[in-house]
Amino acid sequence: MRIDTSARALSTPATQPSPSTNAPAAATRAAAVPEPAGKPLKSYDGMYLGAGGQIFNPASNSLKDIPAIKPQNGEPKGLTVYVNGVGAKPDGAVNEMQKYANTTGNQVVGIYNATEGSLKDILQAAGDKFDIGKNPASDQLSSLIHDTLKSGQPLHIAGFSQGGAIVDRAITDAKNRFMLEDGMSKGDAEKLLSKLTVETFGGAGSNFADGPAYTHYVNRADIVPQLFGVGAPFSNPGRGADVRTFNSWNPFTAHSWDKYMAQWRPPNTNTGVGSGGGGGAGGSW
Asked: Please, what's the b/e burial string for 34-44 (b: 16 or more CB within 10 A of its CB; e: otherwise)?
């Protein structure tokens, strides 16, 4: 596996302990990643984030080369590409990825949405909603979607908070590329996008392109999806989307990753192509 010089691990992966007879399926927790000395986090925007907190440059590493974060409670069932939200340093994103892996059974590779502080992150998220400005994480995810689906392979992606807006933007951009660059009709582009499975959690995306199989999680007390995401009036969760709402009214934890992970169930895998009206058919618990 090639690791570009500018994208080497930011910290040495934790040493693997010897297997325990009491917990034979357990693996070591992914190592936390310190802020890179003398280099802003923004320089790692849109790069792959893998096991041990290692960061890899997509220009010199393909998705299959990245060591994924694996569940600590069994063998992985599949692969999910995860995009974090506002304010997450690499160690925070790694912790979210490990929680997702343990909850779902999938191994996880991240596309790092680098933070520049909450205010700049929120302004960038607003740009993502209206496809304004440059976001390297969105650009990289869009290229991954386009290239993976065009090669005939399926892809599973997930986004939390601003990551939901990045996912929204990336899918739309990939769909436009299928039509404008590859000469596909709208129907053919949507058929190709049916190979994409998407999950959002408290996401800020609100206008999802038809085609993929969508599962959206919305806490009714969480202002992010309720004001900016698929819980907002006139939003479009994508044709055939499964919008799963729940109630957790504590204002301090309404948008927490742990709350959303507690609600996870296997995602909607029904194609969004030709599935009737626009979304909203999900469950509530």
From this structure: eeeeeeebeeb
Helix (H) or strand (E) holding 196: strand 196-201
pTM, two decimal places: 0.81
One-letter identity of residue 148? T
Fill in the DSSP letter of residue 273.
T
CATH of 63-262, one of 3.40.50, 2.120.10, 2.60.40, 1.20.120: 3.40.50
Q: What is the pLDDT of residue 185?
A: 98
Extract the runs of DSSP E, i.e. beta strands, from the chain.
48-49, 55-56, 79-83, 107-111, 155-160, 196-201, 213-219, 242-246
Q: Where are the domains of the chain?
A: 63-262
Q: What is the pLDDT of residues 184-234, one digit of tens each?
A: 999 999 999 999 999 999 999 999 999 999 999 999 999 999 999 999 999
Which parts of the chain register pLDDT below 50? Answer: 1-35, 271-285
Identify residue 273 by its one-letter amino acid code: V
Sheet holding 196-201, edge to edge: 55-56, 48-49, 107-111, 79-83, 155-160, 196-201, 213-219, 242-246
For the chain, how are helix, strand and coil distributed in percent, rounded to 5?
35, 15, 50
